[in-house]
Every structure is written in structure tokens, then in C-alpha cells.
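If it is no trouble, can you show me the amino acids of a protein and the C-alpha cells describing how it folds?
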Amino acid sequence: HIIVFLNYSMQDSKEILEWLRKFPALYTGDNTLKSIEAFLAGYWFATDRYEISSHDDLLISNEFHSWVAYRLHFSSSHCGWSNLIYERTNSEKEAVNKFFELYEEFVNRTP
């Protein structure tokens, strides 16, 4: 599935994330936050390993993890951003929706 996105170098990260939002199971094999997390990690690995120009804002950074912890009112955490989201949601669907809400807020924040 990663190859599909890497072949479309003209697509921007917002479009890729919109595809993931609309059809997560199509691109990740499942409609779960963990599958989205694995897809994004695989995307990062492939672009890094094969030195493919990537959309840096699509990558989930440590900064995103810290920001999610802050935003969801965790004093500290080392369990990963997806686990933080799961901790504050009541269903898989809610967790997936919360991820996209938080990610959109994260990339559009102003310093």
C-alpha cells in the first residue's frame, strides 16, 4: 500500500491523510488507529530507507507525541501518541476520529 502513495509524488500530505481518513481500511488493512499508526511508520521507513523525497509534515514526530500528551492533559507519558488517544476515547471509531482531529489541529497550530 505504501507504494501507491510513493508513486504519486505530486500528492500533498493533506490529500494522503484525507484518503486515510475516508478509507482507512483500504490503505491500512483495517479501520483502527493502530493500523493508521503502522501505515504512517511504514511510510516514514520507506521514504527514509529508499531516500525518497517525502512530505515531512506527514511524519509523526516526537513533537506530535508531546503535543498530544499536553492536549489530552497527560502530565507525562512514554506509551506513544496512539495509546494516549485510546486512553481518552471510548471506541475505535472515536479514537480514529480523535487522531485526525488532533493531527489537523497540530499541523495548523500557530507558534
About this structure: The longest helix spans residues 33-49. The radius of gyration is 14 Å. The CA atoms of residues 89 and 95 lie 6 Å apart.
